[in-house]
Amino acid sequence: MLNNSKKLFSDAKKVIPSGVNSPVRYFEPYPFFVKRSQGSSLWDEDGNQFVDFCNGYGALLLGHTRKEIITAVSNQMKKGTLYTTPTALEIELSKLIINNFPSMKKVRTMNTGAEATMTAIRLARGFTKKKKIIKFEGCYHGAYDTVLVKAGSGSAHNGISISDGGLDEVSRNTLVVPYNDIDELEKTLSKNKDVAGLIVEPVLANMGLVLPEKNFLKDLRKITNQFDIPLIFDEVVNGFRISEGGAQQKFGIKPDITTLGKALGNGFTISAVGGKNEIMNLLSPDGKVYQASTYAGNPISVAAAISSIKTINKIKNKLYPKLERYCKIMVDEIDDLATDYKIPHTINSIASMFQIFFTNQKVIDYKTSKKSSTKKFHKLFTNLLKNGIFTAPSQYETVFLSDSHTDQNITKALGAYGLSLKAVKN
């Protein structure tokens, strides 16, 4: 029973819109309220333990309350929490990021993924002196007008194509094309001469999980070079999670601008944007592209990010093979279970991420992802939760593994998937 969570949700609705501070946190009849976390698990206000496969929507690559990161943050807190002046820590962090992501010649840190992508788009417009931005249908780059057009994540889950309150004159400058469709992209670019840049999640993690088809990313790089427009890789989710150098390292692509977040701080609020010198030098005060934030370079978050990257780099030769092995074990077993139960399905996976779609059709873009049965997915999610496994409540999110997961966690999760898929069948 979730009596405390039920009461807390009732209280929350009186003072918080819809009772939650982010739409993806809501699920019927009400979300559980977390009291604490440790390693691979969450405990709610009723004392129930859940093995966490949501992991802060990908942020907690190293798991909850990772010792190295908590120690670094604790040490910094004793020295101060906010200076609003430069620190040596910021230089150290930028050098670490550049070492892992060589396409980023200069880096500016900020607070959220949305802030980073917003700055990346502004930089592209400042660099090209053009207005239009191309994004892909179902890609989620943050909750602001320019990119909240046919977006994924909670926007897709709640059926919102363009948010009320958004400005038509802003969204008109955002051109949307299907993911994995180079021909349609080329047609769009040929018809529009005022394109300032193209932004893309290399691997879509906000539409379930959708992978780039063979040569798609290489073709993206080729065509953006051909039309002389900046290529922006939104690696807020992909960065550090697919590899220590993100999707761009795995697929061998060098974007012009990159955004990072999530695993960069392993649970602490921090993001970054970086890229070519000639683009990054446009940022104020030396340049005329304005970006500012009181909390940018916050020493607490910077200390967490430094520790996160150092830990990842130290254990990378064990970390990524372990996560890939766990991912393959889970995907293979879930596929077998769904097949045995004769449930129409397809599973997409890469590195430490996977998602099941309840459709026989291959999921390669937003249109095909929308063919999946969300009713069956909700039944799966609800039954997993009953069996102590927490995944993101939306079909249009992703299952994330972390370094804190153990063999016992995987065994428990697979047992729960077996029971839950049986419930889906029935």
UniProtKB/TrEMBL annotation:
Cellular localisation: Cytoplasm
InterPro entries per the UniProt record, alphabetical: 4pyrrol_synth_GluAld_NH2Trfase, Aminotrans_3, Aminotrans_3_PPA_site, PyrdxlP-dep_Trfase, PyrdxlP-dep_Trfase_major, PyrdxlP-dep_Trfase_small
Pfam families referenced in this protein's UniProt entry, alphabetically: Aminotran_3
The protein's name: Glutamate-1-semialdehyde 2,1-aminomutase
Co-factor requirement: pyridoxal 5'-phosphate
CDD domains: OAT_like
Pathway: Porphyrin-containing compound metabolism; protoporphyrin-IX biosynthesis; 5-aminolevulinate from L-glutamyl-tRNA(Glu): step 2/2
PANTHER family the record matches: GLUTAMATE-1-SEMIALDEHYDE 2,1-AMINOMUTASE, GLUTAMATE-1-SEMIALDEHYDE 2,1-AMINOMUTASE 1, CHLOROPLASTIC-RELATED
Predominant location category: cytoplasm
Molecular function terms from GO: glutamate-1-semialdehyde 2,1-aminomutase activity; pyridoxal phosphate binding; transaminase activity
Source organism, top-level taxon: Archaea
Catalytic activity: (S)-4-amino-5-oxopentanoate = 5-aminolevulinate
